[in-house]
């Protein structure tokens, strides 16, 4: 009789709206990675009811600092941990899940389709201030930059500015906001991950080389970075399970290419934390 009553009580509690909140982890950082981790997280949760992956942007610097402090389980980053000041890379474990290419984007009325790597650098250092100086229309150049903690900014400046400083300009935390501003601001230029390019903005070839995945794979297009998911120490539990899911065929052969990223396995070159090719 007691067993029956206990079972009956359980049913009554369930019918009154008792909810199992499930298990969740937080993945924070790179906005260039955000669409990938969100899509994979949603698919993972649909395959594993009661398990949730909370994804937020904020930039690679934020992701690295928060995972190092233990505030989140995963820090998403376009940078190697070794490249970020204030981060002890020895505390973190690197899980590379994809490669992302970055491309300059422009307002579609600037009047050019191609630019040299040297001139692109001069645009961002302020040495070139009008599009007519590089073959475009007589329109002042408006720089839209990413915030200083952005991995995309670090990667872009590393390969385009080559140690020089960007001209002070408007800065944005969100890649989506960067794209919106460029699309609506005459003379505007910035840079985004391939996955963020839409018909509202124009892209530029550099020295005649197109920003394509194939050119990234061979390093003909040099503005690219790994997409890292860092953990503090070896991952456990749900974190470990989700990171293993990120390497499955479902993610690597479907979600990654569909969203404009490149599987690490497709790369014909490898870079280390200093930018040297292996």
Q: Write down the secondary-structure element order.
A: HEHEHEEEHEHEHEEEHEHH
Q: Number of folding domains?
A: 2
Return the CATH topology of the largest domain: D-Maltodextrin-Binding Protein, domain 2
Q: Roughly how many Å is the radius of gyration? A: 22 Å
Tally of DSSP β-strands: 11
How much of the sequence lies in strands comes to 15-25%
What is the name of the CATH architecture of the largest domain? Answer: 3-Layer(aba) Sandwich
CATH superfamily of the largest domain: Periplasmic binding protein-like II
The main β sheet shows up as: 9 strands, mixed
Apparent shape: elongated
Per CATH, the class of the largest domain reads: Alpha Beta
The helix content is: 25-40%
Number of helices: 9
Q: How far do the termini sit from each other?
A: 72 Å
The structural class is alpha/beta
Low-confidence stretches: 1-20
Quick rundown:
By secondary structure, the protein is of the alpha/beta class. Helix content is 33%, strand content 23%.
């Amino acid at each position: 009789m007691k067993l029956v009553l206990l079972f009956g009580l359980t049913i009554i509690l369930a019918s009154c709206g008792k909810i199992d909140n499930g298990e969740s982890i937080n993945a924070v950082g790179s906005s260039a990675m955000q669409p990938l981790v969100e899509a994979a997280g949603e698919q993972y949760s649909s395959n594993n009811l009661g398990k949730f992956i909370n994804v937020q942007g904020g930039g690679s610097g934020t992701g690295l600092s928060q995972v190092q402090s233990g505030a989140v389980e995963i820090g998403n980053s376009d940078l190697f941990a070794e490249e970020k000041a204030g981060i002890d890379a020895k505390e973190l474990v690197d899980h590379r899940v994809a490669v992302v290419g970055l491309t300059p984007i422009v307002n579609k009325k600037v009047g050019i389709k191609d630019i040299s790597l040297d001139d692109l650098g001069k645009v961002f250092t302020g040495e070139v201030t009008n599009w007519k100086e590089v073959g475009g229309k007589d329109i002042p150049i408006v720089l839209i930059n990413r915030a200083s903690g952005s991995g995309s900014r670090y990667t872009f400046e590393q390969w385009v500015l080559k140690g020089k400083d960007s001209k002070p300009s408007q800065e944005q935390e969100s890649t989506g906001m960067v794209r919106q501003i460029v699309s609506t601001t005459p003379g505007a230029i910035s840079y985004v991950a391939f996955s963020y390019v839409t018909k509202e903005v124009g892209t530029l070839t550099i020295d005649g080389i197109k920003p394509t995945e194939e050119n990234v794979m061979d390093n003909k297009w040099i503005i690219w970075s790994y997409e890292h998911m860092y953990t503090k120490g070896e991952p456990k539990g749900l974190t470990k399970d989700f990171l293993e899911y990120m390497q499955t065929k479902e993610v690597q052969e479907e979600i990654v290419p569909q969203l404009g990223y490149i599987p690490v396995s497709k790369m014909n070159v490898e870079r280390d934390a200093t930018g040297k090719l292996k």
